[in-house]
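Researcher:
Attend to token order:
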Amino acid sequence: KKAKAGILVTNHLWWCSFAKMVDYIALQIPVIALVPEISEAKTQLSKANLGVFLTNDTDQDLKILNNFFQNTEIKPNSEFCARYLASNQVNSFIKIISKL
């Protein structure tokens, strides 16, 4: 919870990356991410207002990281992030299963 940021770099073990992303969103921790432009990770991190997106361009990425570490003013979308808490997810599953 006290981390300055989490790191999300997608690879062939995408399921591990997704699990970490869920944790970061629930904890409302900014995420330095190298993810595809069109991806669920980018969509969810953007909705949570937690994404610090790298581009794979070294010069551009240095500027992005420098700006982030010098001017961290990320304000998470707390209401959206709360949807990722285990307690909220359990209640959602209970509602779905109860309807079966």
About this structure: The chain has a mean pLDDT of 87. The longest strand covers residues 6-9. DSSP finds five helices and three strands in the chain. The beta strands are 6-9, 31-34, 51-53.
